[in-house]
């Protein structure tokens, strides 16, 4: 009869061998990295439990930032499975650089640009031209070169021939949520964010007006080329586009794509 310690060691070795053999598959199934525009933070986090419940063994890991910053990370080889941007321009660049899996790109949400001010502002803004008032000293917006919301704002202001005026008062943010925070903390008298962002801190900011944009604000999503979790990435995109995912987005103020 084999000694008990020897049996235990052999069983342990067998178990370890099976675990190592299954290890790569387990790792691939466990983590799905989603790089998404900062404005999607609350909505995507709310989706996570339902998606994970439908796909046992898959865990979502989110990386939220400005779309251009996320694109740069992916281009440098960051291990990302899904890319969701706040504008089609960023996704077009990703496609041009062959960073996406062909045929996986789709639009899943829309948004609107708004001008916000602190909720306790004593002199409300009524029009874009009011940004020229002497009491409006700082205007928060994403840097147009790297933040989609900033690009939309610049385009709208150029159309209204107000960009030079705003540029002189601009406080640039690294993403749309930072622009929101500047206004919420009273560090800027006005700011440009998405309607969904303004709703996140509706007790601290109020929407002065909706700002028309030359092109609709659309959110595309796609599987990143080289993903070790391409099948799971496709399933997440399907979930975002499903009635359940769309209901979450609608609760957070996003529009239909």
Summarize the structure.
44% of the residues lie in helices and 22% in strands.
Which helices and strands occur, and which strands form pairs?
Elements: H1 4-30, E1 31-37, H2 41-54, E2 59-65, H3 67-75, E3 82-84, H4 88-96, E4 106-111, E5 113-118, E6 139-142, H5 148-159, H6 163-167, E7 170-173, H7 176-184, E8 190-194, H8 195-200, E9 205-211, E10 217-223, H9 230-241, H10 243-251
Parallel strand pairs: 1-2, 1-3, 6-7, 6-8
Antiparallel strand pairs: 3-10, 4-10, 5-8, 5-9
Oligomeric state of the chains?
Answer: single chain
Overall mean pLDDT stands at 90
Straight-line N-to-C gap: 70 Å
> What is the spatial order of strands in the main beta sheet?
2-1-3-10-4
Name of the CATH superfamily of the largest domain: Periplasmic binding protein-like II
The secondary-structure element order is HEHEHEHEEEHHEHEHEEHH
CATH architecture of the largest domain: 3-Layer(aba) Sandwich
In the CATH hierarchy, what is the class of the largest domain? Alpha Beta
Low confidence ranges: 1-28
What proportion of the residues form beta strands (DSSP E)? 15-25%
Number of helices: 10
The tally of strands reads 10
> What is the total domain count?
2
Reported for the largest beta sheet, the result is:
5 strands, mixed
Overall helicity: 40-55%
